[in-house]
Structures are given as C-alpha cells and as structure tokens.
Design a protein that fits this description.
Length: 747
C-alpha cells in the first residue's frame, strides 16, 4: 500500500505532540552497559518511512528491535522482529505507545506507524491491530511489500488492504516459518477474524507470534486441525524454512554471555524459543537474549547469572528433548488458588482455559483472561446453574473440577443431549457436541466445539466404516446407537470395566506418537491400571507418550516414549503383578482412612482412600483426591448396596462399611523407602531420593520415583517449596522433609 502525501504532515504534527515532555524510561543497570560493536542492520525507518514515537523510542521494545540483526532470510527476519515485541500491550492514550500499559483502546506503535489511512478511511491511527503488527514486522525486517504488503485487515485477496499472498485452507497445507495464519473463530467459513505469524510446526501443533491477542503481542500454539484456524497465507519468501530449529545450529562448547555471537548462540536462542522463552534467533547475544536466558534459569532453578554454562546447556538440552505435554490438558497447569477475573494472567488461567476447552467451550489457552475467556466462563456458569458473573471463584473452580472428573471418566452424554434429529455437515448445537465427545471417546482426535465441520464429518465417516454403517458422514439413529456403545461393547452391552485391558488387543507392532487404534487403547488401559491419569482414547498423543516414558523409567527401559516389544512385555507383566498381589499404587493402604466427614467439593488424601476403596469394589473410579460428581454418585450407590442412607456423604457409618469391604485395610501412612537424613540436591541418587519423589507425587507434584535427583525432581520440589512458603532452593533439607512428612501424615 502506498503512503498518502497528506499523511506526512499529519505525522509531523503527531510526532511533535508525543515528543513534548516525554519521561525517560529506566531499565535498571542494563541502561548503563555498552555492548561490543556489531552491525545492527535493523530497518527501523523502512518503507513506509516513519520516525518512532518518542514514547516507543524510549521503551524496552524499541531496544529489543534495535538489537535484532537481519540475515537477509525474510522468513527468519520477520519472525525475529515480531519476537522482539513479545509482551507489548496496547494502551488507551498516546502516552501508552511504549507498550507498558494495560489498556484496551487499541493504541499501539504499530497503528502509529501505519498512520491516518488505517482501514483506508482516514479516521485515525488506532484500530484493531493484528494485521498492522504483521505488516509493521515485515517492514522492519526489510521484507519487500511485494512479498508481504501493508494490509490493515486480517484478510487475504487483491484488495490493497488485504494480504496479497497465496491462501491454503486448513488441512491442505503444512505452514512454514514466516507464513501467515488466519483465524475464523466462529468456524463458519465466512469470517476472517485474526492474523498471526507462524514460528514453526512441531508434533502436529503450529506455534505462532501474534499481535492484538488478548491486547498484547504473545506467542501461542494450536493443533493444526484446530477448528478456529481458517488457513494459512504463504508469501513468496526466499531462504530456508527450518531457521528456528535448534538442530540447524551447533550446540555450544563454550560459555555464552552478553556480546557473544555465532551459530552456537543461534542454537541457544532457538532452544530458548522452543522452551517457551521468546528469543529472536539471530546469533547475537544482546540484552533481550540475556533477559530470556535469566528467565529460563530462574524457572529451572539454576543460577540466574545470564551466562549459558555447562549446567545450563545440559538443562536446556534436556528441556527441548523432553516430550512437551499437550497444552489442551488441564492437568498440565496448576489449579487456581486465587479468584480469576478479567485481566488476570498466568498458568492458572491456562488451567481455566484448558478446562473450558475440555468441557466444550471455545477458549484459547494463552494464559490471558480476556473477554473471550470471560464469555466462555459465563456460558459454563449458566450451564451449571452458577452465578454467571464471569469470575472463577472457589465455587466455580470446584464445579469445573467436578465436571472434569466426569469428562475424564469417558462420559459421552452427561453434559450434552443425545441427538434426536439427523445431524449433518453445517449443523451446530449441544447435540453436535454429544457426537464429537462420543467420537473422542472412540479414539478420534476431536475438539468438542458444537459445530459439525470437516473434521467431524471425516471422523464420523471413518467410524461408520469401522462399524459397518453407510459411510455418508451423516449422524442418524444407527450411528447414534453405535456411538452410545462403550468402546469394545455392543450398543446394549454393559461391562464391569469398559476400559479393562482385556477389552483391547495386545500390540503386535511398534506404537509411537501419532498412532491410532485399539492396540493404543490397550496401552492406555494398562497405564491406567498402573496408576496413571489416562484417558483410553485410542490416540497416541502427548499424555500417552509422557506417561509411557515415566513407566519405562520405572521399569529400567529406554525412555523413548515408544511401545515396542520390550515395553509391551513390561506392561503385560505389570498386569500379572497386580493380579498376583504386587504393588498397586492405587491400593487403599497407600492413603489415610478419613477421620472427618467427607462431602462434595472436599480434597485430600483421605478422599483418595474413599475413591481407592470404591475402585476395589468395582466402581469405575479415578483416584484423584477430589470429591466430585462421580465420587458422590458412586458412594451413594455403595451406600444403597450396603443398607445405608444413599446421601453421597462419607461419614463414620460409610467409612466403617468401606473398611469392611476391603478387609479393614488402612494406611500405615508410610513410604517404602527410608526418610532422608541428608540434604538431597541435584545429582543425588538412592532410596532416600525415591522417598522424596514418592512424597512429592502423593501431594500432586510430578516426580518419577526412579531414585535419581534430576531436573524433574528439582522442579517438583521447588514448586512444593514455593507453595508451602519454604525457601525455594530445590534442595531437600530437614525443614522440607518435616513439611512433607506432616502433609502426608507421617509422624
């Protein structure tokens, strides 16, 4: 898009306005340092020419921008420029152009750069800015306007205000670094809602950097098949596309610090990026790279000196080599302990968003509690009869946790109505959600959106073929009847445990990430029997891989996350051990008998005892420690069987009956390893380390009991220490041991 001549005068007026009386922004000691000379070729005045506003020119984001070293590879340069702006927040006033405010008025430096001709109507500088940010990033990266033009709309086509690039529908193209991603939030094929820039694709997920996402510049990631993605725009770039992969660069053999440059610096930057720390990959170790490295060091309990030495390098290698859990699983985030409201951010917000998505509501898992998260929460509160205020307080949180227990137990119709009409492509409603949830429980990788789109139709056709139905992709009575059947059953059958391993075939092939099938369900069912929180879906995804790696470590196998013959043999053996009286991590004896009355909403190890006993009595029960809907209904059924009032409350009479049902089993509150008498820290090995790991696991912190004190154990320990107000040093001394003993009930 060409600059209009009249714009120059308007810009001069605005520049003079925002330059007067501008306060100097301080950035601590970093402002006093001088970096070694380097050829910074960033085009901050690239076409269309503009002088940065004085507010932005004194901000950390402008400093980040000036540090970026351009390579000439347009794919790399556009994402590096965009990454330099991660964290920038829109404001309400011109003085907010620095990006440090928390406004919502679309006031950004990117709109200021674009000018008065925003949207082609000359009505002002500041409008929705995702497209303007994308165009701004291209200009600062010196990407020609013939490759990425100055669009003002999140749209593609020949209109000069649209991105004039080649468009590919979702599912027809695998995007590459620097491509554009276009969203259609309603998934109706008629709306272009938002645009971002693709960073890379990994494990079936596309990672992006986007402006105007929750009013900020942030990184996000989605399944490539996410229904909100409309498609991808492919500009005519030149240059390699794998520029953000750590494997493209040499692993450092030296210490890296401020001012360093080279291919090994690119390795560090790419690794930090893949670990979730937004670092441009340009081979120059500037202040922004140093800040991101320090954040990584603090997060993983390392010395936060901003220098990458041997320990930091090994930790970074381990982090990027480890399987990253699916971001759509609420179990990967901390349950909120505070009230969440509009404007909150953090991993507990991600828990809320992941839970909303798991329960069928539209939510982006970005950790930012924005208007869309609030709308989804209000919809959930309305469904469950709560106060619909869009605030996640303790009551709403506990109701969500109860609903999640039902969802993970494989319920397909509890929250959604069974269809009474014929459903076809283009339909929407809660009965469509029922179909999608049922398909998910039959092993399909399915988002529960309520919209019958391409993926729902394709999955239904596959399901119909498997079940000898006409594969027309239309859900009529015959398809509903088959979907109502539990996996491995006929429509009218009932089984004591529909997820028993015996319902599925033992694998005869090597299973790995991305596989589907009934043999995958066997693996998941066996892992579930071994105490893992596992849905039996038939899809080998992030959670299955991570759980299998933990199982392999516990059993002395190579922890590669693939199920070959050796792993299959160990999984089979684990079932034999359980049947012949071997250790059962979910045995009632592992948990304390309740000494209080337990009811809906309670948490604790004594709740796990109740659930473990109900499980021993044949109830399909996950031992979660949360007393939700399923625990209450199962307990009521147990009470009715045993002549008690079926009120779903666990008092003394119910406890006595539960104890009697398992032969009076009670917990010794102990752990089958010695209590540490030394200070345990990174590198320690032994049975006392296993005690620490087992204690942390019992309290809900992920730590494999392998006897090796590695990064995973340290991270779990730091999380425990922080939550309990202890010195979060990642070392287990006498105070930490005392706190662990007290909380798991050991005197």
């Amino acid at each position: 898009m060409k600059r209009f001549a009249a714009l120059a005068a308007a810009l001069v007026i605005l520049i003079s306005c925002v330059s007067a009386g501008v306060p100097s922004l301080a950035f601590g000691q970093e402002a006093q340092k001088t970096l070694p000379s380097v050829n910074h070729s960033i085009g901050v005045n690239a076409s269309p020419v503009y002088n940065p506003s004085s507010y932005y020119a004194s901000s950390v984001y402008y400093s980040n921008l000036k540090e970026v070293v351009l390579s000439g590879n347009h794919r790399l340069d556009i994402v590096n420029v965009a990454l330099s702006q991660v964290g920038y927040h829109e404001g309400n006033h011109v003085a907010d152009l620095s990006g440090g405010s928390y406004g919502s008025g679309n006031v950004t430096e990117y709109g200021y750069w674009y000018g008065m001709c925003v949207l082609g109507n000359g009505t002002g500088f500041f409008h929705e800015w995702c497209a303007m940010f994308t165009a701004w990033s291209a200009r600062q990266a010196r990407v020609p306007v013939t490759v990425v033009n100055n669009a003002a709309y999140a749209h593609m086509g020949m209109n000069p205000y649209y991105f004039n690039v080649v468009f590919h529908n979702r599912g027809t193209y695998t995007p590459r670094t620097g491509d554009l991603i276009i969203y259609d939030w309603a998934n109706n094929g008629r709306q272009w809602d938002h645009v971002g820039i693709v960073l890379y694709v990994e494990n079936g997920r596309v990672h992006t950097v986007e402006g105007n996402s929750s009013d900020r510049v942030i990184m996000r990631d989605f399944s490539l098949n996410d229904h909100e993605i409309q498609g991808f725009g492919a500009p005519f770039y030149t240059g390699a596309a794998n520029v953000l992969e750590p494997s493209s660069y040499p692993v450092p053999s030296r210490n890296l610090s401020l001012g360093a440059s080279g291919g090994d610096v690119k390795w560090m930057q790419a690794a930090l990026l893949h670990a979730g720390f937004p670092t441009p990959v340009d081979g120059y170790f500037g202040f922004n790279t140093q800040r991101q490295l320090k954040k990584f060091q603090v997060y993983y309990g390392l010395s936060s000196d901003g220098v990458l030495g041997p320990v930091g390098r090994q930790t970074l290698k381990a982090v990027i080599a480890a399987p990253r859990p699916g971001t759509e699983d609420p179990a990967n985030y901390p349950v909120p302990s505070r009230t969440l409201t509009l404007g909150c951010c953090g991993n507990d917000v991600k828990w809320l968003q992941a839970a909303l998505k798991r329960l069928g509501f539209t939510a982006s898992i970005d950790g930012e509690f924005g208007p869309r998260t609030k709308s989804a929460l209000i919809a959930l509160q309305t469904r469950y009869g709560l106060v619909s205020d869009g605030v996640c307080d303790a009551i709403t949180r506990d109701r969500i946790r109860g609903a999640l227990v039902g969802a993970s137990a494989g319920q397909t119709s509890g929250d959604y109505p069974v269809p009474t009409r014929v459903l076809k492509y283009g339909d929407s409603g809660n009965d469509v959600k029922w179909v999608q949830n049922a398909l998910k429980n039959h092993g399909f990788d399915m988002n529960v959106t309520g919209y019958f789109g391409d993926k729902t139709k394709a999955s239904l056709i596959t399901f119909q073929r498997r079940n000898a139905l006409t594969p027309d992709g239309i859900c009529g009575p015959a398809a509903v009847a088959k979907l109502k059947a539990s996996p491995g059953q006929s429509a009218g059958g009932t089984a004591a445990d529909p997820y028993a391993p015996s319902n599925f075939p033992v694998p005869t092939r090597v299973l790995r990430y991305g596989d589907n099938g009934l043999d995958v369900k066997w693996v998941q069912a066996v892992l579930r029997k071994n105490g893992f929180d596992m849905n039996v879906t038939g899809y080998f995804g992030d959670k299955t891989k991570a759980s299998l790696i933990t199982f392999q470590k516990r059993n002395g196998l190579a922890p590669d996350g693939m199920c070959g013959s050796a792993t299959t043999a160990k999984l089979k053996a684990s079932l034999t051990q359980q049947t012949t009286g071997g250790a059962d991590p979910l045995a009632p004896s592992n948990f304390p008998v309740p000494t209080r009355v337990l009811r809906y909403g309670d948490n604790g190890l004594d709740v796990k005892w109740v659930q473990a006993v109900l499980r021993k009595n044949g109830f399909d029960m996950n031992v979660t420690g949360y007393f939700g809907d399923k625990t209450r209904s199962s307990l009521a059924a147990f009470q009715q069987r045993n002549g008690l009032a079926p009120d779903g409350i666990c008092g003394p009479a119910s406890i006595a009956k539960l104890k009697a049902s398992v032969g009076g089993q009670s917990s010794e509150n102990g752990i089958a390893y010695p209590v540490p008498t030394r200070v345990l820290r990174m590198g320690c090995v032994g049975d006392d380390v296993k005690w620490l790991q087992t204690a942390l696991s019992r309290l809900g912190y992920s730590a494999a009991a392998d006897g090796n004190f590695g990064p995973g154990t340290k991270n779990a320990l730091i999380a425990f220490q922080r939550q309990k107000g202890l010195a979060a040093d990642g070392e287990c001394g006498s105070q930490t041991v005392a706190a662990l003993k007290r909380l798991i009930g050991i005197s």
